[in-house]
Every structure is written in C-alpha cells, then in structure tokens.
Design goal:
Helix content is 11%, strand content 38%. A hairpin with a 4-residue loop joins strand 22 (351-362) and strand 23 (367-375). The chain has 8 helices and 32 strands. By secondary structure, it is mainly beta. The strands form 5 sheets. The protein has a 24-stranded antiparallel sheet that branches. It starts with 6 loop residues before the first helix and ends in a 6-residue tail after the last strand. The protein is globular and about 65 Å long. It has helices spanning 7-19, 38-49, 163-174, 270-276, 321-324, 382-387, 427-430, 491-497, and strands spanning 27-28, 32-33, 61-62, 64-65, 91-95, 98-105, 122-128, 131-135, 138-142, 145-149, 187-191, 196-201, 204-209, 214-215, 234-239, 243-245, 248-260, 284-296, 302-313, 337-338, 342-343, 351-362, 367-375, 393-404, 411-420, 450-451, 454-455, 465-474, 478-488, 508-520, 523-535, 554-566. It has a single domain (7-566), classed as Porin.
C-alpha cells in the first residue's frame, strides 16, 4: 500500500505549503462526511430541503464539512463521530465508522458510485475502517479501503462483429481507459481510501490525501469528479465553510494530483486486443483543477459555479508555472497560434474539461432543480463558442421534490436525473465522414479522464446516456422506494458503427430497482436489488452469426448489493 510521488510533485507540494503559511492562522479543526456515503448524504439533502437545518448547504463541493451544521433533531444525522462528537480541548482521537459492502452481480450489470469497488461479474466485497486524530490545528484521518472481487468472465463485446465495427469500438478503448474486465483472474486491492493529513479551520483547509472528492450538484453522477472511481493522491487548498462577503458566499477548491492508468486490456478476447489495441504511452498523468461556486446575497437558494481540470501524461509535463497550473490559461485556442498559421496547443497533449453548473433550492416548496453543462475541448475563439456551443459537450439535469405526509418528518421523495454524453448532431458537419470524433472522458493523448480504469465523473459508460427516476417514502431513520432507469449504452460507438444503417437499433437497458435503508442506533443498512431488461444486448442483432435467441429478443439480468455501516463508540 504505497503512495508513489515523483520529485516534481514533491517540489510542487513544498511550494504550495510555503505559499499557504500565511493562511495557517485561519486554520483549525474539521470533520467531513466522505463522498460515496449516499445514505447519509441523501438524508442530509432531505433535511436541508425540508428546512430542518439552520445552514444553507450548497452540496457543490464535497466532502461536506459538518462541524457548523445544526439540525432541529439531534439524532437525525447519526454518523459518528463525524456528526455527534464534540471537540474537547486541543486534541482527540476517534474511531471512524466501519463500512462493509457486499455485491452479487453475476452478469456485470452497470454499477457506479462505489469508490474502490470495480465493474466485475460475480461476488464482490468491500471494507473500510480507520481513525481520526487531531492535535491543535493539525488532523490526521486514516481510512484505508479493501476490495475483493470474484471477477468472472461474462458476455461482453463479441468477436462475431465485422472488422469495421470492431475497429470502431476500439477507437473509444484506445482513447480511454475503460476495460470490460479488470484482469483475467480474481481482483483485489488495498488503498489509502478516505485518508488525509490536513491543516483546517473555520473556513479554509489545506491537506494532502487520497479521499474522494465530488464537484457539482449531481445526486447520482457528476461530469468532473464523483465517487465512481477510487480516490487519487492529491494536494488541496479549499473552503470547508462558505466564505461570506458583501456580495454573497463563495466556496472553492484547487487541487494538483496524480492519476493512474489501469494497464488492463479492454476486451476479454486476446485476439481482438492483439489486433486493435494501442498500449498506454505513459505510466501516470498529472492533474490540475479548480472549482468555485457563488451564492448571491440577494438571491437565497441559488448557487452557480464553474469547474475546470487539466491532465497531461507525465512524460509530457513541462517545468514552468503554466505547466503545473494550466487552470490559469485563457480559454481560446487562437491565442496559441504561432506566426499566424501554426496551432501548437494540441501538440502539448493536455486534456481539458470545463463545466458550468447551477442549483436552485426552494425550502418553501421542499424542492430543488439543477444542471451541469460541460465541454472537453477549447473553442477556437468566442465566435466559435457562440456559433457552436454543442461541440464536445455533455450535460446533467436533475431535480428533487419532497411531499409532506401526515406524520412529522415523513415524506414522499421524488428525484430524478438525466445524463447525456453522446455527441451532438453537429459531428456530421464538423468532421470528415459520418463517424464523429471522441466523447466525454476520452482523449487522444491522455487516454481519458479516469483513474485505475474508471471514469472520475460519469460512471454509466463511455458515450452513454441515462434517465433515472426514484420514488420513495423516507424519514430521518429509513427509506423504502423504487427506482426506474433507462440506459443507452455507448451511443457514440453505436452511431459510428451502425448509425447509417436503416432501422438501426441501439443497445438499451430498462431497469427497475428496489431500495431499502434503515438505521438502528449505531448500525445503518443500505440495500438495493436491480433488475434489467436489455434490448439488443451487446448489439447482438449485428453479430454474425447472431446468438441463439429463443422467443424474446430481450436479455434479462440482475444484481443485489448491501452496505452496512457501524459507528464505533469513541473513548476519550
């Protein structure tokens, strides 16, 4: 269990620490709810919408700091020690909650948002536990994660498709890092997980760690960062509570980090990999990013913000300030012309993603709506941006509504989210031919915005679109509900390979899931069972010969998962 960093990163950390010394006087203690503990985050979001908190929580920069949050019900946020333990004196040591997860996914049904857990067929187990210690202004959180997956073979991309179709599929595999199967045997990993060493205080924090971060308003997905992949080593300077000014409140985060490639072959068929797969050219990638959001003083419940990230292969990383902090670059590519006719920017091999987002909350209506709109490529200039805003874009739209029931603090909860990554129709006029170009979380040099083979933001698959609706009955201690979903798999590949065929049919999953969550004192249970009917599974109608189908063209699959969190009692 090692955290390997190059000399460049070490020098950069030293510079950041030196530049932050003058801010240390503002720093103190901080406790957070880890990204990916969806049961508690969903509960806190309901408490916020229903007016049971005295704070205006943006949910735009996560993990969420809790030391200032107050609720009308002291027992409604039982996530010890994060939410119920009070600081005494200048030091303390606390045991962190222990989480055990088990998943049975015999056919590798699409799953996401589970940190170190991976897409794998069969049985899979996850464990995390640790401790938090503080001495004055310095705190240490050690929360390692362990995962073990059976990782069985499963029906994946077929060998019975034409060479042209197979080549089209490998275009996205060769410009990304999303393997079907994580190796050829059982998969296991131990990682630092939600660990960090920090100097933190009332409003600001500086830390070095591997904890997951999430940017943007999404409940299930985010365009930039989410809990879909494992956390990565990074240095961060961020707010832990909004900075209040005469204009309103601001939150933000600046990070530098290290992303790893999986180095797994993308297909389960060696013959296809040997013919079509291009090996990775770099051992790791350097990452720089920032997020900032703003709540206007005069518009309560409205939050707007901006995310920007850059990544570059380690072997292409320069030594200047601009190389280490490209987030300060201007946006227009025309500024990188040399001699008026030579565009040199693309030769640098950097991969940029930008997103803008907003969240609108009405506590009176107990409702929220939000969006995030992203682009993964610079515009040439502002004129091109205005004329062609659809280029290289992805977006998320979502909502949540609570309907009060007769019993206090009991609600019908309606929430939904749309994720769209598929290229827009302008691919037909922007590029030669009819195939289009790349898609969200892919890049020609950096091989995709991923860590260890999983997308850092969206987890539904490369170039895929999804629609999700959840209806549940919930209170401060439990939730029972049903979730409907529709997933259009790898749509950019589909249109490249089959889109010009008459009556072409994509691979679409229609899902229904049952959710049950319950908390008993220190023990929390979160569980779900998902069933999916797939039409044209793995594009089987285009295979030669097609698989044997008896009766219905539908393929049925299922998965189940259970999470247990036990809040260990702390001793002073």
């Amino acid at each position: 269990m090692q955290l390997n960093c190059s000399s460049r990163i070490s020098v950069l950390k030293g510079k950041l620490i030196f530049c932050s010394i003058f801010l240390i006087s503002l720093l103190g203690k901080s406790q957070t709810l880890p990204v990916g503990t969806s049961f508690y985050e969903d509960r806190l979001r309901r408490l916020d919408l229903s007016g049971q908190t005295d704070n205006d929580i943006s949910f735009l920069v996560r993990p969420i700091d809790f030391k200032e949050i107050k609720t009308n019900s002291p027992d409604s946020l039982q996530y010890q020690p994060y939410l119920r333990e009070n600081f005494v004196g200048k030091s303390e040591i606390l045991l962190l909650p222990m989480q055990v997860s088990y998943r049975f996914n015999p056919d590798n049904l699409t799953t996401y948002g589970d940190r170190l857990m991976v897409p794998a067929a069969g049985h899979q187990g996850y464990l995390t536990l640790g401790f938090f210690a503080r001495l004055g202004q310095v705190s240490l959180q050690v929360s390692p994660e362990v995962v073990f997956a059976e990782n069985k073979p499963f029906p994946g991309f077929s060998q019975n498709l034409s060479p042209e179709v197979t080549y089209a599929r490998f275009i996205y595999w060769n410009n990304g890092d999303n393997p079907e199967r994580f190796g050829i045997s059982t998969y296991s990993k131990i990682w630092w997980g939600q660990s960090k060493l920090s100097w933190s205080g009332r409003s600001l924090e500086f830390y070095i760690g591997t904890q997951n971060i999430s940017w943007g308003p999404g409940q299930f997905n985010s365009l930039i960062f989410s809990a879909n992949a494992s956390g990565f080593p990074h240095v961060s300077f961020n707010t832990v509570n909004p900075l209040k000014t005469f204009l309103g409140s601001f939150e933000g985060q600046v990070i530098v980090g290290r992303l790893e490639n999986s180095f797994f072959d993308p297909s389960q068929h060696d013959a296809l990999n040997q013919t079509y797969f291009l090996p990775f050219e770099s051992d790791w990638r350097y990452l720089n990013g920032f997020t900032i959001n703003y709540q206007p003083k005069w518009l309560k419940g409205i939050y707007v913000g901006l995310n920007r990230t850059f990544q570059v292969n380690n072997n292409l990383l320069g030594n200047s300030f601009k190389d280490y902090f490209p987030i300060f670059e201007i946006f227009q590519k025309e500024n990188f012309f040399e001699n008026g006719n030579s565009l040199v920017y693309d030769s640098k091999g950097t991969d940029q993603q930008v997103s803008v987002f907003a969240r609108i909350v009405s506590k009176k209506a107990k409702a929220e709506v939000y969006f995030e709109f992203g682009r993964r490529d610079h515009s040439f200039n502002w004129r091109e941006f205005i004329l062609n805003p659809e280029h290289a874009r992805a977006y998320i739209l979502g909502f949540q509504k609570l309907v009060s029931l007769a019993r206090p603090n009991n609600y019908l909860q309606f929430r939904g989210e749309i994720v769209h990554q598929q290229e827009s129709v302008n691919r037909y006029i922007r590029y030669l031919g009819l195939g289009g170009n790349l898609t969200w979380h892919t890049h020609g040099t950096s091989r995709g915005f991923t860590n260890f083979g999983q997308g850092l933001g969206v987890g539904i698959g490369t170039g895929s679109n999804s629609q999700l609706l959840e209806v549940s009955k919930a209170n401060n201690e439990s939730k029972i509900g049903i979730r409907f979903s529709r997933l259009e798999n790898n749509q950019d590949f589909f249109y490249r390979a089959f889109g010009q065929m008459q009556n072409a049919n994509p691979w679409v999953d229609f899902g229904i899931g049952l959710i049950y969550e319950k908390q008993w004192s220190r023990l929390t249970l979160s569980s779900k069972i998902d069933g999916v009917g797939s039409n044209n599974f793995q594009w089987e109608s285009y295979q030669n010969p097609p698989p044997s189908i008896k009766g219905s063209p539908w393929t049925h699959r299922f998965m189940g998962q259970i999470n247990l969190i036990y809040s260990l009692k702390s001793h002073r």
